[in-house]
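Suppose a colleague, Dr. K., hands you the sequence of a protein chain of 371 amino acids and asks what its three-dimensional shape might be. Before reaching for any lab equipment, you can write down a predicted structure in token form. Begin with the sequence itself:
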Amino acid sequence: MKMAQETPSAINNTKEAFLYTAFELSNTKWKLAFSDGNKFRLVSIESGDLPRLQIELENAKKRFKLDEDIRVVSCYEAGRDGFWLHRYSASIEVDRRKRRAKTDRIDASKLLRMLMRYNGGEKKLWAIVRVPSVEDEDARHIGRELDVLKRERTSKRNRIKGLLIQQGLRVNNPSNKKFLQELTSFRTWDGREVSTDLKARIEMEYKRLRLVEDQIGILEKEKKERLKEPNTESLRKVNQLLLLRGIGSVSSWNFVMEFFGWREFSNRKEVGALAGLTPTPYDSGGSVHEQGISKAGNKRIRALSVEIAWAWLRFQPNSKLSHWYMKKFGHGGKRLRRIGIVALARQLLIALWRYLENGVVPEGACIKPIA
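The predicted structure, expressed as tokens, is then:
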């Protein structure tokens, strides 16, 4: 006698439901990819059309028969669009073949699959960009605008110097407020005055230069005023960095506003990685060599760290970090010292992080006396 075999009931091992959303952004169109984990839906909308985006989100919920209050998990490539889209609702896994098909539809679908894998527990699939608050992001603009203005100042100074050197005339500082008076007394190599049209061009360049100088002065004054009454944690960190000899107002401001002010580091490896100062070894088969630093992080901080590392050797010669550098790299050639200064920059960046987070002064470092 055969016994009827009962069909085993399915075990409910379903995880929490999500609506996955991936954005492929461009200037004119946004490609949106939606999924509930099984089915996919791809739509296009006009770039920046947030009302239409909300409609498509609701349509996706209805299409997949999801609850109205379903949790939405979204992502897009970190890039030009910044963080605003994240606040409203972080690149693509690249096929290493020489040629590959690339369309917005493929990219959006690929990004969506990666999002589902990450949310399912594959946490090393990509790096998540930490999004600053609106206030933290806003605080970066003074430092960045100063960088732009200083580059513009250098460009205009060099242009004036270049125009004059063609006539055999050399000036040290075209930003001098008495420069136009001095211009009338200049004589070319053959004793003639500067020609009328050339003088007019130089005067126009000088007026633009003075405008840039005035704007720099306004921003520098604004920074000083804010540091006199530090009402945020970031401003207090700037003042804390200023206590270390060898770190000035520009570097302390940029270190905090770009790096230490709002980012959350768990360990020293994360600090070095975000600055792009981590080594990238190549070890495959019988080939083993170093490829240099990754250069994958914040380029402003990377350049600033190397610059401050040189200043640290000069102003903090008795610190443990300076002794370490001199012992290991100080007696080598130029190339070895340049390699060493990058290593010192990484070590110094980590030491500054510990100093700001835990108040641990770098060993042997000098603190400026408080006025």
